[in-house]
User: What shape does this take?
Amino acid sequence: SQQGEEDPQALSIQEGENATMNCSYKTSINNLQWYRQNSGRGLVHLILIRSNEREKHSGRLRVTLDTSKKSSSLLITASRAADTASYFCATGMDSNYQLIWGAGTKLIIKP
Amino acid sequence: DAGVTQSPTHLIKTRGQHVTLRCSPISGHKSVSWYQQVLGQGPQFIFQYYEKEERGRGNFPDRFSARQFPNYSSELNVNALLLGDSALYLCASSLARGQGEDYGYTFGSGTRLTVV
Assistant: This one.
């Protein structure tokens, strides 16, 4: 079963604009991770935020986590054509050796 | 350094057949996890192996099995293939059990299985 739900399912923006994707989840978590997937191939780990953190930055990526609302957002600033991909959130829980994933947001950056 | 390697990259099988997918983790990584990703959905956890023992199993039927070898490579086996088994099968490795969940996984490029 899916834990997270990404919103929107698809997003199309102009190059240079900012892209925001949201993820909601159902149960308590240890951490939340964001991954990128190009053309249905392997997943690339982008950033991980722990349950006791509220915000984290990595380059052009900014992730927030609101555990009271069970939600997270991924912001990509100054988007580039190469950012075109599907983005997934995945949650890790204590004593559980698996990640539970959402269905992903398909991001298209128009040149 | 080589990343996580999976073979084959593509595979077409007929219903009822058996398939074996292979994964070599990053050198030094002892934990391997398998995920199934159906088109348009997020990955679903199948198995995790650590130090050659099964440490976790997802909600998949007994037709799915796996094993890990002394060199930490792994095989995923699926028997009596169904059309619904058509998916991208992803392997992920991490240094130790639980580390992928704590620090993030490195994934292979996957094996695309089509069952006809």
Q: What stands out?
A: Chain B touches chain A through 33 residues (CB under 8 Å).
